[in-house]
Amino acid sequence: MATSALRLENVDAFYGDSHVLQNVSFELGEARMLGLLGRNGAGKSTCMNVGMGLLSARRGEVSVFGEPVTKLSPEMIAARGVALVPQGRRIFRSLTVRENLIVAARKPDAGSKHAPWTIDTVFAMFPRLKERSNQMAAHLSGGEQQMLAIGRALMGNPRVLLMDEPSEGLAPQIVAEVMTTIRKLKESGLSIVLVEQNPNLVFDVADDIVILNTGGVAVVSTPAALRQDDALLRQHLGVF
Ligand SMILES: Nc1ncnc2c1ncn2[C@@H]1O[C@H](COP(=O)(O)OP(=O)(O)OP(=O)(O)O)[C@@H](O)[C@H]1O
Ligand SMILES: [Mg+2]
Fold it and tell me: Which secondary structure element, helix H or strand E, spans residue 212, and what is its range?
């Protein structure tokens, strides 16, 4: 089997005494997109935190391109080529757009197959960020802040991109723009986990789907199979 870009194997994770992830296993294939779905509180962000090293798995293993990273710090995991676009954007509000991008810059790995991301290539992908490059990030619209959050992750020249609900709180037109960007990133060969609550957003772009329910993996499937299974979607996600 081909090496997976990111793999969680039998992961248990806790916030203090609260046992949030239970025996979670899934894998993201190289150059593929995995849609990670689940209701509020299902454990999606916790999985992303574990993948990025922001929260350590108490049991189980996390690996990136076949190398174990389970006990590594977020900085070391970033150095292995993983970047997170966090839920709620988390940009530096009192820095300018340009400064937000500069502080996130990291050289690509020596063996990287991709052209490196720079301020210029990020601005080429998001012309609106270029127009606002000297503005304080706090003054951007929600959609622009999301673009900045994505641009910042790209400045780390990742091989694996974890995107946690990038559509949250955005108007439909802006969501469509963000999804177009995500599609382009996938076509560029990045391996992507796209976390969402709304399956309709991910079914068009994802290759594989994992649905979490109360901290465990409930379904591993594909968009094609799940489109035919309304009952299963209703059971784990509610109605869309
Ligand atoms: N820092 C924390 N401390 C304690 N409990 C937490 C913390 N963060 C999340 N939780 C709990 O862990 C569980 C999983 O949360 P998580 O944020 O991973 O869900 P999610 O699927 O990302 O939900 P959402 O769609 O609302 O973002 C929830 O029960 C949540 O209340
Ligand atoms: Mg979340």
Answer: strand 208-213
Mutating to test ligand 1, I would choose from 24, 26, 46 the residue with most ligand atoms within 8 A of its C-beta, which is 46
Domain count, the chain: 1
CA distance 30 to 4: 6
Taking alpha carbons only, the member of 32, 27, 33 closest to residue 7 is 27
Check if 49 has its Cβ closer than 6 Å to any atom of ligand 1: no
CATH value at residue 52: 3.40.50.300
- Judge if the beta carbon of residue 46 lies within 6 A of ligand 1: yes
Residues of the chain with pLDDT under 50: none
- pLDDT digits 0-9 by tens, 174-217: 999 999 999 999 999 999 999 998 899 999 999 999 999 999 99
Residue 38 belongs to what domain range?
4-237
Ligand 1 pocket residue status of 20, Cβ below 6 Å: yes
Q: Is the pTM above the cut of 0.85? A: yes
